Amino acid sequence: MISILDQFEQGVESRIKTAPTSKQLLDESFDRDADLQGIPILSKKKVNFSPSDKITQLLVSNDYVVLVMVNNVLLRINLKQDNIEEIDTFKTSSLKVKQLFLDPFGEHLLISCGNINSSQLFYATKQLSKLKPVGKYQGSEITSVAWNYDFKVKSTSSTTGPILLGNSSGTIIETQLGTEFDRFFQGSVVQYWKEVFDISKGQPIPIIGLQYHRVGKSDLFYILAITPTKLYQFVDIIFNKDERPMLQQIFNNYLTIPERFYEIPTVVKHSKLHFYFLNNDFTVPKYFGFLTELGVFVAEVDINKDEKTIFSSHELIEYSRLYGRDDDDFTVPLSMTFTRYHVLLLFPERVIAVSLVAPSDRTASQVMDEDYCSDSYGRLLNITKDLMTGTIWLYAERAVFRYKITKEDRHVWKVYLDKGMFEEAKEICINNPYRINQVLIRQAEHFFNSKQYENSALIYANLNVSFEEIVLKFLHLNEKKPIKLFLMKKLGGLNSQDYTKITMITLWLIELFANELAVLRNYKLGKSQEYTTLQESFKQFLAIPIIQDCLRKNWESIYDILASHGDVNFMMWLALENQDYKRVIQHYLNEENIAEALTLLDNHPFSELFYTFSSDLVEKAPAQTVSILIKQGQKLDPLKVINALIIPNPSERLALEIIRYLEYSIHCLNCHVESVHNYLISLYIKYNRDKLMNYLKLQGREISAVSYNPEFALRLCREHQLGEACVQLSIVLGLWEAAVDLALTISVELAKTTASLPNNNIELSKKLWLKIAQHVVKQNNDIEQAMRFLEECKFIKIEDILPFFPDFVTIDHFKDAVCSSLEVYNKDIQNLKEEMEDATKSAEVIRSEILSFRNGYMLIQPSNECSSCHEQLMTKAFYTFPCSHCFHAECLIKEMQPYVDSSTINTIKDLQNQLNTLYQNNKDISQSLEAINRRDKVKESLDKLLAAECFFCGDIMISLIDKPFIEDADFEKIKHEWE
C-alpha cells in the first residue's frame, strides 16, 4: 500500500554515484562530491495526498501533520500509521481558523480562531479527537506560542508543561494545558492562567514570535519575544521549577529594571521566530532568525548570564543583496526555515537556499540553489520544518511537497575557506579527503605567512603535498624547530614498509638534534636547563619504536653524525641504551679507562664481548680480566677465550694469569680441547716447569686418555731439555726403549721405575730391565748392582746378564746366582716330567674309550618311528644317534635345509645322486672292489654331512634358542584360528 505521504529519497539518491570508500585518494583528480555538480541542493516531490479543498495552513511535528482547509475542515494525519482524522467543528461556526500552533513533539495542538468581534483558543491532543476551548478565553488573538521543549513533557503527553502565549495586544501569558485537568476543573483543560508580562506598555503591539528554552540541565532559562520593531531578551535563573507559574520568576526580575530589547528592522506580519537545533538536541540551539522587511535576521545563540543577553552579534541577510548585487526591486519572502548551513526562503514562485555563511566577497551570491514551482497547484503558502525528524515541507493551496536536502555543505566549505574559518571548513570536509587536504593546505599556508611556523609545520606534515617543496620553505628559516616538527610529524605517519623514507628522515632529525646540542655547547650552555631539556627530547625521540628499528640498521651512520659534532657523551649513552657494548668498551680502551671497561664487561656479560676484548684487557689488567673470565664459568667457550689469550711473548705476570684461566678451564670446566692443553703445556714449559710433571702425571700414561698432543709436548720438552718430562711423554707414546734410554741419562732409579711400568708385557719388561742391567754393568762396571737386579726383577735370570760381564770377572761374584738359577731349572725339569707322564696316561684312556665306542651298537625295534615325520623308521633309509633320536635320511635333509647354507645342501644332493647312480650300476653280485670302495667313500662323505650330530640335540638346535615358536608372519593367522 502506498503511503499517503510517501518517501522520495530513492529517486534522488539513485542519481548520486557513491564514491568508493575503501581507498581515500588525496590528489586533485578525486573529489568525493564531484558527482553532485548536476544535482540540486533542493529537490522536492509531491506527496500522495489530494486535499478536498484549498489548504490554508499546515504544520508538521514528529511525523504528525495538522492542516486546515478554507472550509474550516481540520485534518490530522499520523504519518507513522497512515491514519487521517477529519474534524469539521468549525463548518457551522462563524469563527475562522487564524493560526495553528503544534508543539515540537506533535502531542499538543492550539488553534487560534476568531471573527471580527472576538477571538477564541481551542486545545487538542493527539489522543483527543474533540477540540476543547481553553477556558472561556475571548481576549486578544493569540499570535505566538512558546512551547515547552523538555523531553519529560513528551513522555507525559497529557500535559503541555509550562508554556507561554503571546497575543496581539503585547501580553505574555503563562499557562499549562492538559486533558488530566479536565476531571478536576469542571471540564477545563487549563491548570493555571497567568499574565506574566506586558510588552505593550499601554499601546497594543502584537507579539509576532515567542520562544523560551532552558540552558542545558542548568537552572538558567531565557525567553525571546519579537514585536514588529523590537527583539526582547529575558535571561535569568529559576530557583523553584515546581512553582506555578514557573516562568513568572524570570519576568519578576524585570519589574524593577528595564527589559533588554534590540531595535530591529520592521518584522513582516506573517513572520515566525525560528530556531535551529544541532542533532535535534533542544537544549542546545545553534541559531535563531525571523523575517524582516529588509532581510532575514539571523543570530547565533550565545548566552551571557552576567549581561543577560542571548546573542552577542547578528547578521541581516538583505534581500537586495542575495544575488551579490544591489537590487532595489526585491520581494519579501512568504516564509522561511533553517537547515544546517542555509535558510530556505519561500517566494511566491520559488524556494531559494541562501547560505548562512556570508562570502568574503560581497559581490558573490549567497543563493546556493533555487527551486521554481508552477502555479498549477495554486499559490504557494508556506514552508515549514519538522524539528524532530528534520524533514522540510512545502505546501500550496492544493498540494503538499516534501523537500530533500542533498549535500547542502558542498559549497559552504569554500566560503569558510575563503574567510579563513579553517576549523569550520574541516568539520564540513571531514569525509572528503581531497577537500580536507585543500583546507589544510590553505591553513598551513596561512600559519606560515603569519609566522606561526610550528603550527604550519604540523599541518604540512599531514598533507599530500611535495615533501621537497615544504622542506625548502622551512630550510630558509633561521629557527630549526619548525623543520624538526615537520619531519617528526611526517615520520609518525609513515608505515614500517617505507624504510627508505624512515631512514632518511631519521638521520636528518638526528643531525638537527645533534647540531642544536653542539650550538649550545659552543656557547658554554652544556649544563643549562635548555640543554638538558633538548637532550631529553632527543632521547625520547630515539626511544620511538620505529626509530629503534632504524637505529639498529644504521648504527655507523648515526655514530658518524654524532661524532662529527663531537658529542661523545651522547654517543656513549646511545650505545649503552641500545646495548651496543662493543662500541662502549672500545671507547673505554681508547681512553685507557680499563676499570670502566671491566666493570661494563662484568655487568653485561655477552660472550662475544669477552672473545673480542679479552686480548686487549688481559694485557692491561691481567688479574682482573682473568677473574671476570672465571666468573663467567660455562657461559664462555674456553677455546674461543684461549684464542683471545694467545699473546706472543707475554710477560711472566700475564702468562701466570693465562695459566690460571687454563687450569680453571681444564679442572673445573672439564675442557678436553687439545689446543687448550697444548697451550697450557707450552706456558708450563716456559714459565712454571714445576707444575708440568704434576700435569703429565694427572693426564696418565694411556695415549687415548690424554687431552694434549704428546708429539707436540715431546718436541717442546726436548727443545727445552726437560729430560724427566721427555721420559713421561715417551711412555705415553709407547716408546719404552727410548724412555728407558733417556731415563738412564738422568738416573738409574728413574730408568728402573720406567721399566717396571709395563707389567702386562713380560717380554718388554725383560727387555727394558736388560737395558738397565747392560748400562749398569758396562757403564758403571757395578757387578753387585747387577746382581741386585736379579732380586728386583723376576723376569731376568743370571744367564741373561752373563754376556754383559767382562771376561776378567771371576765366578765368585755370581756363584750364588748361578746355583739359584740351576736349582730353578732342575725344578722346572721335574715338573715337565710329571706333566708328560700325566699326558701319556690320559692318551691311553682316550684310546681305549674310542675302541670300545667303535664296537658299540643300538637295537632298532620295528615299531621305532622317525623323529620328524613319525612314520615307521624301517621303511626307508635312516640315521640313528646315541641320544636315541632317529630320522629318515630324506627327513633329516628336510629338517636341516632351512638352517644350513645353500652350498652344503647342494653338496648333500650331489652326494645322494652319486650314491643312487652307483647302486643302479652295480646291482649284480659280482661287484668290483673299486666300485665298492668308491661307493663307501661317497656314503662316508654323506654321513659326515648328515650324521655329524643330532639335529634336535646338536649345535643347530642350540643356536635356535632365541627363535620364537611362532613366526611373526604367522602369528596373526594362528591367533585368529585359535579364536
From TrEMBL:
Keyword Zinc-finger included in the entry's annotation: yes
A GO BP annotation: intracellular protein transport
Molecular functions per Gene Ontology: protein-macromolecule adaptor activity; zinc ion binding
Subcellular location, principal: membrane
GO cellular component terms given for this protein: HOPS complex; late endosome membrane; lysosome
Superkingdom of origin: Eukaryota
Coiled coil: 815-849
Membrane topology designation: Peripheral membrane protein
InterPro entries associated with the record: Clathrin_H-chain/VPS_repeat (IPR000547), Pep3/Vps18_beta-prop (IPR007810), Pep3/Vps18_RING_C (IPR058919), WD40_repeat_dom_sf (IPR036322)
Entry-linked PROSITE patterns: CHCR (PS50236)
Record-annotated Pep3/Vps18 beta-propeller domain positions: 40-405
Entry-linked Pfam families: Pep3_Vps18, VPS18_RING_C
Keywords in alphabetical order: Coiled coil, Lysosome, Membrane, Metal-binding, Zinc, Zinc-finger
Domain Pep3/Vps18 RING C-terminal: 861-958
CHCR repeat spans: 629-785
Subcellular localization(s) per the UniProt record: Late endosome membrane; Lysosome
Family: Belongs to the VPS18 family.
PANTHER family, per the entry: VACUOLAR PROTEIN SORTING-ASSOCIATED PROTEIN, VACUOLAR PROTEIN SORTING-ASSOCIATED PROTEIN 18 HOMOLOG
Name of the molecule in the record: Vacuolar protein sorting-associated protein 18 homolog
Protein species of origin: Melanaphis sacchari
